[in-house]
Amino acid sequence: MSLLRGLPEMELIVILVRLFLDFQEKLALLDSAPILDVPLGVISRIEKMGGATSRGENSYGLDITCKDMRNLRFALKQEGHSRRDMFEILTRYAFPLAHSLPIFAFLNEERFNMDGWMVYNPVEEYRRQGLPNHHWRITFINKCYELCDTYPALLVVPFRATDEDLKRVATFRSRNRIPVLSWIHPENKTVIVRCSQPLVGMSGKRNKDDEKYLDVIRETNRQISKLTIYDARPNVNAVANKATGGGYESDDAYHNTELFFLDIHNIHVMRESLKKVKDIVYPNVEESHWLSSLESTHWLEHIKLVLTGAIQVADKVSSGKSSVLVHCSDGWDRTAQLTSLAMLMLDSFYRSIEGFEILVQKEWISFGHKFASRIGHGDKNHADADRSPIFLQFIDCVWQMSKQFPTAFEFNERFLITILDHLYSCRFGTFLYNCESARERQKVTERTVSLWSLINSNKDTFRNPFYTKEINRVLYPVASMRHLELWVNYYIRWNPRIKQQQPNPVEQRYMELLALRDEYIKRLEELQLTNSAKLSDSSTSPSSPSQMLPHVQTHF
Amino acid sequence: MEFSELIRTRQAQAELLSGPEAPALRGTLCVTGHHLLLSPKPQATDLWLLLLRSVDSIEKRVAGDSGTITLRCKDLRVLQLRIEGVEATLDVARSIEALSSLESVITSYPFFYRPKGLRLGDAWHFHPLESYYKRVALETDAWRLSEVNEDFSLCPSYPRVVIVPRAVDDAALARSARFRQGGRFPVLSYHHARSGTALLRSSQPLIGPKKLRCAEDEELLGAVLAGARPGAQGFIVDTRSAQTAKQARMTGGGTESKAAYPGWKRLHRPLERGRHLQESFVRLVEACGDLEQSMDQWLSRLDSCRWLAHVQEALSTACLAAQGMEREGACVLVHGAEGMDSTLLVTSLAQLILDPLSRTMAGFQELVEREWIQAGHPFQLRCAHSAFSHARSKHEAPTFLLFLDCVWQLGRQFPLSLEFGEGLLLALFEHAYASPFGTFLCNSEKERCLCEVRTQTHSLWSGLNQSKEQRKLRNPLYVLNPSALWPSVEPQSLRLWQGLFLRQTRPPERSEEVWEKVWQIVTDEKTEDSRPVVSAPEPQP
């Protein structure tokens, strides 16, 4: 890190979780205490720079590439073997998988007074949506992950489809990811269904069961005679997928469907785009022609396409009164982005803190977004082509929405940044592994702590003081480039020159507002209580403040 | 002159289409001397009214037996009128064209506007310069109020009174005035009590090719340093490049030489002005209104408009001036050529950065009145046309708008520190270009006196300070921040002012609605509770 160049000797302590540097001399350069606190999970790559013959200050040392848009560069002395030792220790604990060590989340013994693993209960969530009903049923066919190993155990499928039907449909869908219900509209009962691509292939194979199954889904909605299919990919990519056995639903095979392509690019394009963003913001911000440079990364354009796609899905369901089916290739990246964003637009429940946690838990974690592959938890293979910032892109879209609707979300920016920080940190089990079956095998819920435990024990920190609860309001963000902006507080937060102007007082004032509002609501409730029948006192003891182990601190 | 000569038709049947989603308004359209009004049938309860002066450009199209008039307003709104009858359309268009471009000040609408609830003369008692001097006098006795310009003879663009160093007498001021373009000799803009330094502004010295000097002018600047904290040095912030400043000597201008002004160091911070600024504004508005434009090129197009680059330059120059005072304990003199545009931009922004009082509702109004209106920013010339007009003269420049944009950026970066909100900035922008109030009329105090603006028109400040306006204008989250506000001027910290430039494209959630919700949250607390609102000041940065 440019800031740390030419620093005095430092002592490096690796406490398993964090890279913790304690500078022995004070730095005039930095206002705050010169402590660098980096979870080892965030490290993507460690490189030695310079050799025995390197001359000049700072040319010898370690260069650490992080997953969160920054690099750390440590200049070291050439004497002794300090660098070798440091390199080995860091490599060992930053990439435990390569050294047969457990990921830190399994060693973390933090305790919170809320159990985040209790947040998501699929049966309850489906019940909240009014399911099962006479068109949709809950099935346990995937209880042992035999139908589809990357799907959750519990699925919602059309009432009229038998378990045998499901098995036959599974053979025609990539990785057996059959169409299942994600969300049902509380009034018009149209649904969002998700799946993977059909295995059409070059020869244009058809599958009567799949065709019939889609027709059964269509028939659960009588308002519109067609089922709308959104293929998240660009048209050409969908066609190209036929070469590898995939494809899309053709008109002649699937009557009564309408197919649209949403032009969202694949994981590789997104990874390269984010790389370009990093190039223009780190270590220095590209100042001349900033906006043009930003444009050339195409990051905001990708955000725009994802949001536009989700808006179309939401609008089709809400105004178009048509059920929709969403898929991409495997149905775990772009599909998750689209369904979860559309659900966020349609259902105000997901805009609360717990609702959002449920949304992430349901559409991303349980439906097998491959967090382990996309993030590379504990894995040293930094160039793995499976890595991609798909979930980050989703959170960015949520942030864009929260910017456009400042009163619609219960959570604040810090909530989103905290989620992203722990996407990499490996401190919690929440984002570990690729799917529910793997998590179950590893007993993640028993052996690790959930990120939601941390968040729900400190809810006030993550609340938006301007939140005004509105039921049944559909949010349609404007996905025009004019209304999208780079999330500076996230992507450029490591730049000392960008540190947002006095964030603390703003937050402090917001907190005051929150406190006052709560006070007000409480008083109102008290008034209502005293006005109604005089009940016996029901004072509950206030919960104690969160207890955390002293040596583990969050960034904030 | 009779308005009736210019009005070709008085009435027509028309339909107003203001946006793609807003319901169209249908009714009888009337053209009066100052307004276009549309009264929906059958009863004129909900009258739509447009001040003709706010029309920037007009475009007419006829098809069949009706026509469409597109009115592009100075406040960047675009309105469409569909009118029955080809003749009627053409007549209405010609009438609007003629009436909207009238140049006479004394027949303009402010001289006829007599709203209920306001008395003529109210708020014109407000003398920001005198009241500001009272504040300075409490802090130091190095300055005095001079009436040397009582009859505007010394400097036609200065007000009657100015604040000058106590050690310099009026005779010396008169000679200094002759050595400065347009007579704009150095005067006090802001006294920074904490560092004991002063911010001054003037126009360029008339050095000319012969390198003239003026003893009194040198003495004046010397007195400034002598009256400041001991050992203070001075910075002259010239808003032109060193080369332009040097070239100005050929036409009689120039910039202070080091030898003639000991203790003063010159810094050049070129700011774009005049035509270039106007062109940038026009290009930006064009880009914002261009809905066909392929969106993947929006950012580079925004970049090429260079508007945000101007915002950045203005803010960073203001930071430089403010830093000179606060951090280096130096006195600062700002000037460019005429000292009526970028100079005022820099001095007024520097005050906002340093002075917590100028960030209050009343303080900001005082700042605008003192540093822009009374300081002689030629509003009538600069704001004659906005971004749409084709009839462009070389005097137009959106300097004041640039100032408002910079203030908006400050407010965005320090959401709690300004007592006013975006609403006030938008209102000032609209009124500067076309207004029923007299505040922004004319180019100087002298002209305003000749036109009797103070006695014959209402002041915008009394209009804005009516209690019904307050929710729109104030920032519900304001808490006094006693420290300086150092904005980040990195390009990634600056944003397009969407509330203004994208007002034609409907935002997802209107900011007024958002602020109304915030107001509800804030006032619920205040009214519900006798307890004072906890409002810890923002800690020092």
TrEMBL record, chain A:
Active site: 328
Annotated localization: Cell membrane; Cell projection, Filopodium; Cell projection, Ruffle; Cytoplasm, Myofibril, Sarcomere
Reaction equations catalysed: a 1,2-diacyl-sn-glycero-3-phospho-(1D-myo-inositol-3,5-bisphosphate) + H2O = a 1,2-diacyl-sn-glycero-3-phospho-(1D-myo-inositol-5-phosphate) + phosphate; a 1,2-diacyl-sn-glycero-3-phospho-(1D-myo-inositol-3-phosphate) + H2O = a 1,2-diacyl-sn-glycero-3-phospho-(1D-myo-inositol) + phosphate; 1,2-dioctanoyl-sn-glycero-3-phospho-(1D-myo-inositol-3,5-bisphosphate) + H2O = 1,2-dioctanoyl-sn-glycero-3-phospho-(1D-myo-inositol-5-phosphate) + phosphate; 1,2-dihexadecanoyl-sn-glycero-3-phospho-(1D-myo-inositol-3,5-bisphosphate) + H2O = 1,2-dihexadecanoyl-sn-glycero-3-phospho-(1D-myo-inositol-5-phosphate) + phosphate
Biased composition (Low complexity): 536-546
Domain Tyrosine specific protein phosphatases, chain residue ranges per copy: 297-359
SMART domains: PTPc_motif
InterPro entries xref list: GRAM (IPR004182), Myotubularin (IPR030564), Myotubularin-like_Pase_dom (IPR010569), PH-like_dom_sf (IPR011993), Prot-tyrosine_phosphatase-like (IPR029021), Tyr_Pase_AS (IPR016130), Tyr_Pase_cat (IPR003595), Tyr_Pase_dom (IPR000387)
Coiled-coil portions: none
Keyword terms: Cell membrane, Cell projection, Cytoplasm, Endosome, Hydrolase, Lipid metabolism, Membrane, Protein phosphatase
BP terms from Gene Ontology: mitochondrion distribution; muscle cell cellular homeostasis; negative regulation of autophagosome assembly; phosphatidylinositol dephosphorylation
Region listing for Disordered, in residue ranges: 532-556
Known function: Lipid phosphatase which dephosphorylates phosphatidylinositol 3-monophosphate (PI3P) and phosphatidylinositol 3,5-bisphosphate (PI(3,5)P2). Has also been shown to dephosphorylate phosphotyrosine- and phosphoserine-containing peptides. Negatively regulates EGFR degradation through regulation of EGFR trafficking from the late endosome to the lysosome. Plays a role in vacuolar formation and morphology. Regulates desmin intermediate filament assembly and architecture. Plays a role in mitochondrial morphology and positioning. Required for skeletal muscle maintenance but not for myogenesis.
Family: Belongs to the protein-tyrosine phosphatase family. Non-receptor class myotubularin subfamily.
Protein name listed in UniProt: Myotubularin
Species of the source: Phyllostomus discolor
Gene: MTM1
UniProtKB/TrEMBL annotation, chain B:
Superkingdom of the organism of origin: Eukaryota
Gene Ontology CC: cytoplasm
Pfam families reported in the protein's UniProt record: Myotub-related, PH-GRAM_MTMR6-like
Coiled coil: none
Single Gene Ontology BP annotation: negative regulation of autophagy
PROSITE patterns noted in UniProt: PPASE_MYOTUBULARIN
InterPro entries: Myotubularin, Myotubularin-like_Pase_dom, PH-GRAM_MTMR6-9, PH-like_dom_sf, Prot-tyrosine_phosphatase-like
GO molecular function, one term: protein phosphatase binding
Domain Myotubularin phosphatase residues, every copy: 123-501
Family named by the database record: Belongs to the protein-tyrosine phosphatase family. Non-receptor class myotubularin subfamily.
Protein name in UniProt: Myotubularin-related protein 9-like isoform X1
Organism: Phyllostomus discolor
